[in-house]
């Protein structure tokens, strides 16, 4: 007994403490700091979830006790009460609920003025309680809603909110509420009260509809919509005839919204009476309102109410409605504005509503709108069709054929924006089984045609482009996704697509779409093959448009031959071949099931990696698969038919260059039949490459001259590939006698660029065929100097201002190949080769050349092509110089190359300096990477002093990219010196590595920052340049003082100054005298030195000379003579 007493005492104590805690929290509910206020509110809510009565009663007593509590504090407490009530509504005793209702009601109307935050919080408490205690809440509200007296704003607002929160509890009071409200509508003059009455009528109408929609669960199943139609009609008349005319935009919008909701409640005959005036009035509001969404939303509700049950009461107004809505729907939605998008969607819904009763007229109206040559109209109309197809399905069931036929006009569309929307319509039709009807295959063909689109030409930089333009690439990607979507997600589309998709593999115009077609056809085929569907087997005879098995194999293997084309079509071509194998030939099924997955895996592993990918390896793998296929087929007739189909594939690529294919093919023949291939080429050379003339004394050119050049172009390339693929053990004996003797006569006087380039390619291939790695032995190729001379002649023949073909790049590549061969070039020939290579490239302008007299503009495509050719040519020059250096990787050889580069490093043209330094930087990196074991210390790097002396001025060049390259080049030279000291390749010297930071800092336009950077560079060089390189460095650096770029000469001066300060003692004697001699060689430099010396003397030596007039005259005349 004592224990029970103790426990009760403890519980009372705990409850008392809890109540004290709650009261403390309520007291601090409106802290000045928002974070604290939120924490207190959350704490009260969490306590209220377990002790709702304690928290709610404490809030009630606190608010009753402190009636003059600041409004913000009361609002915070009411807000907390609302959240607790929502969480624990079913645990609240009725007595406490009544107390809370009265408290909230008093706060709701505590002041006649509208206090939105406070009164909204009180209203929300009443609505929360009204979900369970609706009768008590309504009784309290009706006490303050008396006939003849305009109620408080928030009394009406609370009833509106309650109507939405608890329609079952509210609707029984609605007749009484409307009876009291109706007389007030006409007498209400204030806009804010009209606004709240209109809002309430909208919510009351929604509440009625919700009650009727859930009538099976309603407390009174006998309630009918018509019970309220008379009262709602009275309110409708006031709102439409009086309030809608208000000048206040916000009031008009809420009135329009209310009219929409109320129209559902009106009797059909009453609604029909209002429509002739109502529809034009609503439509006219579009002109008066900046935000049309609420107008469209309301209008859609009115339309929906009008067509309910298939009613035709809109018939007289239909033409007006369609034209007005269509004009609105054709205005593009601004996706950056949510309200604009919502309005557009409501407009589209209006058409779906109208289609319920007027499907014929709506469809015919829209089909007629597809014809005008207006982009917006066609896009808007197609958007409406998409909405109708998706939303008005049952009502359009008998109109499917009409819609499909009418939409065929879109198949010939050329505007990408319209085509994009049309593709979206096709998706909708696919989902609703339109495409299985006659003509549905044309819609699939349209999608595939867009998958074949090529990337359009780049517009000129001067031309303005449409910011909303849909590019071919974008449309193509979308249609590829559309095709995949309808293939993989719409099961009934298999009947349409299979085997129809295979028809698109044959025509060449669909080549670009091959990847998309194969991907989706393979998906269906593999699915049907696995399920052993009856329709998997293709009846080729009855499907005349589908390529026959041999044609499919040829087409798909050719497609897989260039696997990266067509957006990676190779994988999809192979997958389709495997999926179709039982339809191709029974004998190959098992072999293809084994081999093709391995080929697919090879592509997946290597295709996206440039370093791993080898086109030659891929071709070999594909040819092996073809060879195995022929073996497995075991039928000469089948093999011959397949060969014929491969021949037909050549006709599909008539626009592609054929000479390489012919040349490679002949090269393969030569691998087994060299003498026959040579004889054939010699025969063609004699019979078809001799140009004939006709006419008077041969002055009229024969029409076959162009054909002769094409033959020559092909034959030259054939000789190259024949040499490359011929047996390596015999080709060296045939090169000079049978190949070069036939090619040599054609090197001179070549006018046709294609012939010239194929001659160069032939030389390159001949050089590769004679390399020791290919021959497996050394071969002294004596004729290589002659071939190099021809290559140089072709480079020199190119213009100095134009770069419009690959001749330079190809010739440099050929020279790089020939340089590798023995015997080595003599010094004079090597000099000529390097000079020709550098001179023909460095002198080119920085972009496409356009004659000053030309009226044309340089297009972006021309710029891109020029940049491609320049990059290719620079890479080729770099490759050639690297081969020269690789042949003899010693400092003296590097110095021989540098002699041709350094002059361009001093050029007045920025682009020429940049190209020269770029080449030097890459050569230095190549030299460093290819060094093996070397020694002799830094002194062995004989090019160190001259290279650094030429690079120092460039380290402060006006071109920021050039600065970085020059700084990096200095670092590479110092790293090379470290290797000659015997350091390992991965050794890091702190001073040398610091140049990486200097390179990063060189990208600055701040003079002081640049000075500091060069100063730091000079300190590194002062410590790293060996004494025996110092003289060459300083003497050549003096020339940098006269650099045409002021930044460069200043930077040189900084380095020179540091060198004298830190290493001056080492330069005493002959070095010192030599420096003075070099300084004295340049007149302008010498004059500057004299002026500086005289200035120093004038400021530091104080001497007043006393001369008579005669002496002054002598000195004056002497000075004049010297000047």
UniProtKB/TrEMBL annotation:
Transmembrane segments annotated in the record for this chain: 153-175
Residue span(s) of domain MROH2B-like N-terminal HEAT-repeats: 44-263
Superkingdom assignment: Eukaryota
One Pfam assignment: HEAT_MROH2B_1st
Protein name (record): Putative maestro heat-like repeat-containing protein family member 1
Domain Maestro-like HEAT-repeats: 912-1067
Species this chain originates from: Stichopus japonicus
Keyword Electron transport: no
Keywords from the named record: Membrane, Repeat, Transmembrane, Transmembrane helix
Signal sequence bounds: none
Keyword Repeat recorded: yes
MROH2B-like HEAT-repeats domain location: 266-660
